[in-house]
Specification:
This protein is of the alpha/beta class and 224 residues long. The chain has one domain: 3-Layer(aba) Sandwich (Rossmann fold). Strands 1, 2, 5, 6, 7 and 8 form a six-stranded parallel β-sheet that branches. It has a two-stranded antiparallel ribbon with strand order 3-4. Strand 3 and strand 4 form a beta hairpin. Helix 2 crosses helix 9, helix 3 packs parallel to helix 5 and helix 5 runs parallel beside helix 7. The chain is globular.
Length: 224
């Protein structure tokens, strides 16, 4: 069985009442993957915005494997120390990673964030030398419209992420860099300028699905 682990921040964990892109990806793989698979991870909950805690189980679609490694306000620097044990205990084969916005917004600059990407990769491979990874660049965000320094850090990090993927890619443990959704529009695809609505969830899932199809011939083109 192929075991996918979604790894991310608030856009991946999602909030109470949401489907999440994790669900959209699961739907896609149910249609397109020819063998057994599941989603894995040490966490299962959504974020409860009223309580301010990741304690909700109120998924809009409860009938899918909810497991993940995602957290509201968590980034590469938070996940690097956690990923080794998560990969080991959950026996993850493929990591679907969407991180960076939180790091750049609150904790680290582009270069420091790229170093945390390297630490994350080393820890994941120490747990599973054949783990595969798909990395999604930081997607458009409302803050970048008005904060030019932040926008510059995002652009610089996305460049470094591409270079890091090329540097660290290896046959036994390949890394794919997903293409940012070309039509992603923060006005149409998010509900607050950051977090995806239904169309945004589909576009994020599609970015991962297209990368795996084109890079590894896994699955099929995303059909929504």
């Amino acid at each position: 069985m192929l075991r996918f682990m979604p790894v991310g921040d608030s856009m991946t964990i999602g909030s109470a009442g949401e489907h999440t892109w994790r669900y959209r990806m699961w739907q896609h793989l149910c249609r397109s993957h020819g063998g057994p698979f599941t989603l894995v991870g040490p966490r299962e909950t959504l974020y409860d915005q009223h309580a301010g805690t990741p304690t909700s189980h109120a998924y809009a679609a409860p009938d899918f494997p909810r497991a993940h490694l995602a957290g509201w306000g968590e980034g590469w620097q938070h996940m690097a120390p956690l990923i080794g044990e998560a990969v080991r205990s959950c026996r993850a084969d493929v990591l679907l990673v969407s991180l960076g916005l939180i790091d750049l917004g609150f904790y680290t600059n582009a270069e420091q964030t790229a170093e945390n990407v390297r630490a994350f990769t080393a820890e994941a491979r120490a747990a599973n030398r054949r783990v595969r990874m798909v990395w999604l660049p930081v997607t458009p965000n409302v803050r970048a419209r008005t904060d030019t320094a932040f926008a510059g850090e995002v652009a610089r990090f996305n460049e470094l992420l591409a270079k890091t993927a090329a540097d660290l890619d290896e046959p036994a443990s390949p890394i794919l860099l997903a293409s940012p959704p070309p039509s992603y529009d923060i006005s149409a695809d998010t509900y607050d300028g950051t977090h995806p609505n239904a169309s945004g969830e589909h576009k994020i899932a599609a970015a991962f699905a297209e990368a795996m199809y084109q890079g590894w011939d896994l699955g099929a083109p995303y059909a929504g």
